[in-house]
Amino acid sequence: MSSSHMKRLTMPRSWPLTRKTDIWVQKPNPGGHSDEMCMPLGVILRDVLDLAHNLREAKRMLATRQVLVDGRIETDLGRGVGLMDVLTVGEDSFRCILDVNGKLRYRSISDKAAASKLCRVMGKSTITDGKTQIHLHDGRNILVSDAKLYDSGDTLVISLPDQSVAGHHPFSKGATAYLTGGSHIGITAKVVSRDIKRSSKPNEVQFPDFGTVADYVFIIGADKDLPLEVKA
Q1: Cα–Cα nearest to 108, from 133, 125, 91
Q2: Dmax of the chain from CA atoms?
Q3: Measured distance CA(134)–CA(121) in Å, rounded
Q4: What is the pLDDT of residue 85?
Q5: Buried b or exposed e, range 25-40, using 16+ CB within 10 angstroms
Q6: What is the DSSP-derived secondary structure letter of residue 15?
Q7: DSSP for 54-84?
Q8: Where are the alpha helices (DSSP H) in the chain?
Q9: Could you give all domains of the chain from N- to C-terminal order, each with its CATH number?
Q10: Predicted local confidence at residue 14, as pLDDT
Q11: Does 1 score more than 50 pLDDT?
């Protein structure tokens, strides 16, 4: 049986928490995000947003049913809230992003921005009745009748709270990309070209001043779609 906690010294580097003030920290429950790309809800409320003094207070907050993740009421302290997820606490909403240091940040957003989220297409597969299942980065799957409608690397705009597809950003030349890994993590840039490798090597994407692997590229509509740091 796996533990629900881990030592702070071994927690993911993406978590913006101190490592030596306490010994233990809660682990996120298994879900759509990897441990590196999400944090448990109780820890976010207590240590990141400073909305609770301890996990007991965080649990009371969840019991009021005023805390939502992606537009749905959440009562589980261990629920992982990860990249691009929308966390709503009462009247305030926050979106999870990665900053330029690779740390997970939960930045305040407007009610309009909280009405949708971006999901990267990780792959697709054919299932019963010839339908195509699209696999998204947050663990969700959607069914479409046309296999050519979306490609891997594209981004879908998911409407909240109804969870329907409201838009589509294709992975193409000139698209705005948000980088979620590598030495340029947390910045945006315009795609110049996409190099598909016919081997075991990862596909690469070229930008005006640098290149990176395709797995680090998250297509967005525009810089204003995310609560990024203001450039000086």
Answers
A1: 91
A2: 55
A3: 7
A4: 97
A5: bbbbeebbbebbbbbb
A6: S
A7: SHHHHHHHHHTT-EEETTEE---TT-EEETT
A8: 41-43, 55-63
A9: 5-109 (3.10.290.10), 115-168 (2.40.50.740), 176-222 (2.30.30)
A10: 96
A11: no
